[in-house]
Amino acid sequence: MTAQQFDFSDHSHRRYNPLTDSWILVSPHRAKRPWLGQQEAACKPTSPVYDPKCYLCPGNERATGGQNPKYESTYVFPNDYAAVKIDQPVLPQDDSGKDTLRNRLFKVQSVRGNCFVICFSPKHNLTIPQMKHSDLVHVIDAWQNLYNDLAREARENLKPFKYVQIFENKGTAMGCSNLHPHGQAWCLEAIPSEVSQELKSFGKYKYEHNADLLADYVKLELEEKSRLVLENESFIVVVPYWAVWPFEVMVVSKKKIPSIGQFDQTLKDNLALILKQLTIKYDNLFETSFPYSMGIHQAPLNAKGDELNNSWFHMHFYPPLLRSATVRKFLVGFELLGEPQRDLTPEQAADKLRNLDGKVHYLEKI
CA angle at residue 168 from 230 to 175, to 5 degrees? Predict the structure, then answer.
C-alpha cells in the first residue's frame, strides 16, 4: 500500500466540540458522490407587503381573536400558543426520598414561563437580509429590552424567570408556520439543556486553563482565518471547527460580553451590520431565501458568580441546505444512532461563504 499524507479535505476524521463535550464525524470524500436523494422545492419570494390573512401583519386579527395594533416597527407580544405558562397547577413531588426505580428513572420537574413573538417588521414580505440596517437595530433593541424587562421581573420576584431563549426559525423547511418576518423568545424558570452544557464546558475550561474558552477560540480563528467568514470591530462570524450543519456558523463577540443586556449602541450597530451581511451571503449562496434556525446563547437572567463569569454572548445559525436550493441535509442513520456527521469540511464551507457578496442581495441583481 502506497503511503499517503493525511488530507483533511479528503480523509475521514472526527472533530471535538468543546462547547458540548461531543464529537462529530467528518467524511469529506463523500461530497463527491452523486446525489439521488430528496430535493426540496426552491423558495421563491412571492409574498405581498401586506397579507390580510396573516395573523402577524399590522391591524390584523390574531388566531385567538386578539388584534394587532397598526405597528410601524418591531412589535413584541405574548405568544397566543405559548409552550410554557405561568399559571398552572403545582406538580406533586415524592418527598419520601426512597431509592425506588421510579425515583431513579422517572424524574420530572415542573417548569413555568412565558413565550413571546417578535415581529421584525410590519412588512410581510421582508427577511433579515432585505431589511434596512436601522430596522435591524430596532430588532436588536427589542431583544435587549425583552431581556432586561424579564430580568427586572425576576429580580423583583414578580416572575420566576431564569433564562430567555431568543431565536428565529426562517422558512418552512425549518418548521416556520408563518412567513411574516418574526422570531420568538421562550422564557423558563430553568436553564435549557444546551445552554447549561455550554456553561459547564466554559467553567471546566476556565478551571483547567485559567482562560475563557471563547476568548481563546476567537483568538485562534482570527489567527488561522480558514473558517472566518466575516469580521468587524465587535464580532466575528465563523464556520465552527466542529460544525454539524453544512453551512452552520457562529457569531461571537470579540470581547467578553455576558449578554445582550450589556450592549451599547456600537455593539448593536455592529451586530445588525454583520447579521445583514451574513444572511445576504446565505441567500446568495444558492440564490434562494435561505432557511435556518438561529438563536442567541448568553448569560441567564440576573446571573451571578460562575454563571455570570462563564457567560459569553454568541449566536448559532443552523441552516439545512447542503448542495443547492433544493437539496437538504438530514440527520439520519449513523447521525442519529452514532454521532453527527458531515461531508463538506468547515473550511470548505467557510471558503464558499467568504467569497460571496455580503452587501448586494441576489434579488437586487435580477
Answer: 120
Residue 335 annotated in ligand binding: yes
DSSP string of 69-101, one letter each residue: ---SS-EEEE-TT-SS-SS-PPPP--TT----H
pLDDT in tens, 138-149: 999 999 999 999
Determine whether the annotation assigns residue 184 to a binding site: yes
pTM of the entire predicted model: 0.93
For residues 299 and 187, what is the distance between their CA atoms, to the nearest angstrom?
A: 13
Among 50, 51, 70, 48, CA closest to 59: 70
In whole angstroms, what is the distance from residue 228 CA to residue 250 CA?
Answer: 10
From 13, 29, 182, 209, the catalytic residue: 182
Question: H helices within 156-186, ranges in order?
Answer: none
pLDDT band at 349 (very low <50, low <70, confident <90, very high): very high
133 an active-site residue?
no
> Is residue 177 annotated as involved in ligand binding?
yes
Q: For the chain, list the domains and their CATH numbers.
A: 44-87+109-365 (3.30.428.10)
The alpha-carbon radius of gyration of the chain (Å, integer) is: 22
Task: For residue 150, give the C-alpha cell.
Answer: 424579564
Asked if 342 and 8 touch (Cβ cutoff 8 Å), the reply is no
Distance CA 50, CA 59 (A): 10
First to last CA, the chain: 53
| Chain segment 23-69, per-residue pLDDT in tens | 999 998 775 644 344 445 455 567 899 999 999 999 999 988 889 99
Strand order in 341-342's β-sheet?
13-17, 22-26, 341-342
- Taking the mean position of all CA atoms in its chain, how far away is CA 365? 28
Are 58 and 69 in contact by the 8 Å Cβ rule? The answer is yes
287: left (phi over 0), alpha (psi -120 to 50) or beta: left
